[in-house]
Amino acid sequence: MEIKRKVALVTGAASGLGLASVLALHAAGARIVAIDVNAEALAKAVEPLLGDGVRPVVLDVSDEPAIGNAMSSVMEQEGAVHILVNCAGVLGPAKTVSRDHLFPLELWNQVLAINLSGTFHMIRHCALAMTRNTPDASGDRGVIINTASGAAWQGQKGQAAYSATKAGVIGLTLPVARDLAQHAIRVVAIAPGLFETGMSAGMPQKVFDHLVDTTLLYPPRMGVPSEYAGLVCHIVENAYLNATTIGLDGGARVGNQ
Q: Nearest to residue 33, comparing CAs of 74, 80, 88?
């Protein structure tokens, strides 16, 4: 699918991988609906692009009724949705049992509601809109890109909820792609490894150095958001990428750290 003049929705757009995707798709000529739950951060992030084909929408992806309302507004103003990039997510770190306390159930539910259910809410609403598109020159009506994680395969201590949701994102990719194939809508997941984002910003330097030294193959550094965004653009443009999860991790392999 050609990116130019297409309408792209990006969640988690205020920072990290989401913001990088907004910038890359905008540079390629797409009109962007930038979605995030943090109104202040979103406004600051997209301020340089306001009035230039980028529109911010404050939205909690775990709030399904709100998504329906937002999508009605998007369709009224933009007329179509061609690309969805799901980047909204939270870590929710906690151990299964720690100091005689159970993993907080409310935290578990929150992580699932945002990372997994929120991803699927956006998929189904955007997919419905995409079915109404006229196929472009490549034959595509739409492209959906979900963010999984290397933690889906190599989750570490305290990542039970996060890893479960990211494994779920991988698990839904194939069946959703099968569901949507008849509508000429492709579905691909990206599983980033260690990236320089807000999620990793609070990591102690000692932990940071240990992960880089012991888990990465090459290059010996964390990924940068523009590398993720570059892959997003490639997936949109490569009509033969579908129903798969692409690891983007510098060959990282994590042991029992």
A: 74
DSSP state of 79: S
Catalytic sites, residue numbers: 162
Query: So what's the pLDDT on residue 255?
Result: 59
The residue range of the domain holding 43 is: 7-247
d(CA 220, CA 207): 15
- Flag whether 49 is in a domain: yes
How many distinct structural domains can be found in the chain? 1
pTM reported for the whole predicted model: 0.95
Is residue 21 a contact partner of residue 85, using CB atoms and an 8 Å limit? yes
Q: CATH number for the domain including 84?
A: 3.40.50.720
Range list of β-strands (E), the chain: 7-11, 31-36, 54-58, 83-86, 97-98, 101-102, 142-147, 185-192, 244-248
Per-residue model confidence as pLDDT tens digits over 142-174: 999 999 999 999 988 899 999 999 999 999 999
